Amino acid sequence: MTIKRKIELAVISDVHLGTYGCQAKALLTYLNSIAPKTLILNGDIIDAWHFNKRYFPKSHLKVIKKIIDMAANGVKIIYITGNHDEVFRKFDGTEVGNISIVNKIVLELDGKKAWFFHGDVFDFSIQHAKWLAKLGGYGYDLLTVLNRYINWVTHKLGRERFSLSKKIKNSVKSAIKFIKDYEREIAHLAIEQGYDYVVCGHIHQPKMELIETKNGKTMYLNSGDWIENFTALEYQFKRWKIYHYNEDKLAPFSVNEQEDNFDMQDLIAAITIVEQAAKKPKKEKVD
Ligand SMILES: [Mn+2]
């Protein structure tokens, strides 16, 4: 038995299960090494855009089973939807046992307000975020509607949906500008709305930075991804940090903790347990 690291809150995003780029084994090793009270999955965990029945390896299934097992063992799981898993957006507000699905969430952390969302709604609308911020609490919801509308229009026109990787490939210069604008506008919106922390993902750029304007300050946090950066955000003892898998030596926590005779039956069994747990009375909702 190895000792797991106790953390109050862990945040991961942009895992992209079901794609060739996803480093599921590294993620499994990480998840096996921690014992969080709450685990936030901040979007693009399962990649429904690229979902293909012929490619969903065992290690990817094991990540899903691991998360369900964590929920069954008392970890609160908050699944925030992203653009690649937007098929789940219609389940906003659903709670199954310890797992809840939301499009965004506000949590109180030691008296400070933390705002969590995936971040894709800023793709088309970065330049509009500033004046939308002035509309207070409605800003984010308006961006969501606007973004959905633009997606729908471009889809009808037969054009591809916005692709970040494509944008980055176009030119390094425009990619850097895009990332900077994204970080700045999200921070400004969070400051306008009085959040101490704003936690997102989506652009695959792990970051933790205190951003200050004349209106106030906020801590901008991005959990990165499990394709290239292998990063997570951890909150413990009133502090945030970025966890870098590549800088950690986790040899004792090998993936073999869950044995190789794993199959679909195990996953179904795990889901059934969660469903039974869901029949217990509901706890009060955050946000
Ligand atoms: Mn995304």
UniProtKB/TrEMBL annotation:
Record-linked Pfam families: Metallophos
Keyword Metal-binding (UniProt): yes
InterPro entries: Calcineurin-like_PHP, LpxH-like, Metallo-depent_PP-like
Enzyme Commission no: 3.6.1.54
SUPFAM superfamilies: Metallo-dependent phosphatases
Keyword check for Secreted: no
GO terms assigned for molecular function: hydrolase activity
Keywords of the record: Cell inner membrane, Cell membrane, Hydrolase, Manganese, Membrane, Metal-binding
Domain called Calcineurin-like phosphoesterase: residue spans: 9-206
Enzyme class: hydrolase
Gene3D superfamilies listed in its UniProt record: 3.60.21.10
Protein name: UDP-2,3-diacylglucosamine diphosphatase
Source species of the chain: Gaetbulibacter aestuarii
